[in-house]
Write a structure and sequence with these properties.
The protein is about 20% helix and about 30% strand. The protein is built from four helices and ten strands. It has a five-stranded mixed beta sheet with strand order 3-2-1-9-10, covered by helices on one side. A five-stranded mixed beta sheet has the order 4-5-6-8-7, with no helix packed on it. It holds the Pfam family Metallophos_2.
Length: about 170
């Protein structure tokens, strides 16, 4: 099972559309995960149309129309992998311990908010993934997203992808 992880798209505030490379990944993915800060409901509508399966949450920049359709925390079991998605996990300091306490029955937690790619494993074995942003790099050198696979009940081949800089 192929997963695409994105977050913090901020459309149309930070970009007019998702990059074509990300839409190609949407088409290839069995599951698309969006960790919040969509900003405009039209992206949710389009991802719902174009994704085989979409798991998403709202972020702090998402208004009532998105909050009415998306949860604060989403959970799913994907071929034996217990996935949770949330927009914000708080400060970098102490993140692993906080997430272990808040998500004890989770194998993988996808989050966003910082626009900073993240891939760590907590002391309890929880995998923390932040795909960064495909549209708003902030102080990062590149806009980013992540892909991975779920196979035989485990997460495999987590890869951070850098998008070409826009001119």
């Amino acid at each position: 099972m192929r997963l695409l992880l994105i977050s913090d798209t901020h459309l149309p505030a930070r970009a007019r559309a998702l990059p074509a490379q990300v839409w190609d990944e949407v088409a290839a993915a069995d599951v698309v995960v969006h960790a919040g800060d969509w900003v405009d409901v039209s992206l949710l509508d389009e991802l719902e149309r174009r994704s085989k399966r979409l798991i998403g949450v709202y972020g702090n920049n998402d208004g009532p129309d998105l909050r009415a359709r998306l949860p604060e925390i989403a959970r799913a079991e994907l071929d034996g992998v217990r996935l949770a998605v949330i927009h914000e996990t708080g400060a970098k300091q102490g993140r692993e311990q906080r997430c272990d306490a808040l998500f004890p029955d989770t194998d993988v937690l996808v989050f966003g908010h910082s626009h900073i790619p993240w891939d760590t494993t907590t002391p309890a074995g929880l995998r923390l993934l932040n795909p960064g942003s495909p549209t708003d790099r902030r102080r990062q050198p590149f806009c980013t997203y992540q892909t991975c696979r779920v196979e035989d009940g485990s997460l495999r081949d987590v890869e951070l992808h850098q998008l070409p800089r826009r001119g």
